[in-house]
Specification:
A 7-stranded mixed sheet has the order 1-2-3-4-5-7-6, with helices on both faces. The chain is α+β, with helices and mostly antiparallel strands. It is built from 6 helices and 7 strands, in the order E-H-H-H-E-E-E-H-E-H-E-E-H.
């Protein structure tokens, strides 16, 4: 399984990634963009990594730079439904400073190839909050289409945000 592009590669999440993931869960801007309200411990994240790595209905990857092998984000292909040929998707970068450099778009392109060509799925879907404008633009740039809105689905810091449902189907991917 060769999951790489010009500047990055994807590898299986490891327990050693837990401290980096813990730091991400403490970054206020990342928490807001992802709608994360819970606080986590290092042990909880280590347990989570072990659990997901033993879950056949998902693939979880660290996004790493080829230059220095540094983990700059993570992503998941989850809830794989073989019968209906679909899965869920989410991605997060380790810091807001890493956004806008094209790493997320590169990682999404790698995932799309994996999902539609290797896993042979027909649909990849995601949810993104309306206040995450960078995320929405990145998903649209990668070819995801808005399909619906769950109005005022998130209440965060005294404000409501809509939850936008987006997806890509294999036909769309093949046209790109």
């Amino acid at each position: 399984m060769n999951l790489e592009s010009e500047r990055i590669y994807l590898r299986k999440l490891e327990e050693l990634d837990a401290p980096i993931m813990l730091a991400n869960t403490m970054d206020e801007e990342i928490r807001y963009m992802t709608g994360t309200k819970s606080n986590f411990t290092l042990e909880q994240i280590q347990t989570h990594i072990n659990n997901i790595n033993n879950d056949p209905s998902r693939y979880d990857f660290a996004i790493c730079l080829k230059d220095d092998d540094r983990m700059i984000g993570e992503l998941s292909i989850s809830d794989i439904d073989e019968e209906n040929k679909k899965a869920g998707f989410r991605i997060t970068m380790n810091s807001i400073q890493l956004t806008g450099k094209g790493y997320g778009t590169e990682a999404i392109k790698i995932v799309l190839r994996f999902v539609f060509e290797e896993l042979k799925l027909n649909r990849l879907e995601l949810e993104v909050f309306s206040h995450n404008l960078r995320g929405i633009r990145a998903y649209e740039k990668a070819g995801f289409v808005k399909e619906g809105v769950l109005r005022e689905s998130l209440y965060y810091d005294g404000t409501y945000s809509d939850e936008i449902i987006m997806a890509m189907i294999k036909k769309d991917y093949m046209k790109m």
